[in-house]
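tool_call: predict_structure(chain=1)
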Amino acid sequence: MIATETFTFEGRAGQRLDGRLERPLYGQPHAAALFAHCFTCTKQSRAATRIAAALAAQGIAVLRFDFTGLGGSEGDFANAGFTANIDDLVAAADALEAAGLPPKLLVGHSLGGAAVIAAAGRIASAAAIATIGAPFDTSHVFGHFGDAVDAIERDGEAEVRIAGRPFRIARDFLEQGRNQPQAERLGTLDLPLLVMHAPDDDTVSVHDAGEIFRAAKHPKSFVALDGADHLLTEPGAASYAAGIVAAWASRYLPAPEPEQVALSGTVEVETASGKFAQFVRTATHQFIADEPVSYGGRDDGPTPYDLLLASLGTCTSMTIQMYAERKKWPLESVRIELEHSRDHQQDCVDCDKDGTQIQALDRAIELTGDLTAEQREKLMEIADRCPVHRTLEGDLHIHTTSIG
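tool_result:
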């Protein structure tokens, strides 16, 4: 469960760069990561969103943002070449550090993979790098321009079409992509490196992955994304890659051992991210409670009334099972359906609150097993003796005090 928030920052030329920061839904992240998207992609690409979500679920905050001139970011894409991408990444890292989240993991897809390799030396907090479908030669993207390269060189700028979309490309864009010392950068990287590539990638050859791998020093790892395409659009491809990155990163960004804090009560509830979300913690478990989207929540967990019904249902089932086991009756399983309703006055045959709204919990119990009619009747009677049932129907008082 994760929370997403808008994260904007200033690029190298003062342009506003638009990003999204994924955080764990509750608690503070134990590390931060920076994701660089593929050429002409955006922060909303499948790889970006899946990997950010997978890392955030492991307690790592992830910033995915649009490079200059793409998506929601300002600036001129025509002149924003590879060097500009590197500057954008450094600016993003600085912004994260200023927010108290210095990025330790750099993840890049396609040309973004080449960019994180190039930017790593300027990001002091970087502790590990992962690339997906990255080219070894950064001028590889010029292959998308076709005959327009000559027009760009001659006229200083020309329009190219990539994946059916028009882009203006200037001569400076070409210059930035040429003669980038990627081999030298990899040779002096001195950081753990994960290289991921699809063997059948027809956009960036898997041979590029081999060149990256050979140029880098250990520790380095290679994972073949068998059956995937370059943009990870095949069903399950992006999720698989996200899982690999998250698992690999855990070796270098280990989560701290949870602090054992004695609870002042049996259950502790604290506000979490979102409008209504609450972090619920017991002595041995933790989870999120929320409201559904129709009520303004995000449906990140069960509602308060879901929990109330679950409390009654689980206690009922446990009580029935314990009694049947004690009696050595052939009860195989118990299934209970519960519903909460208000204004139940018309159906109420045992209440004396004339004209007032009441609330009811409806409970339907299914018992499976070779039970006699007498045994079933007795177990249904036992259901009303469960401790939670007695608490709800008893003379219940709730005492509230202020802490601090």
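agent: DSSP finds eleven helices and 15 strands in the chain. Proceeding to next step.
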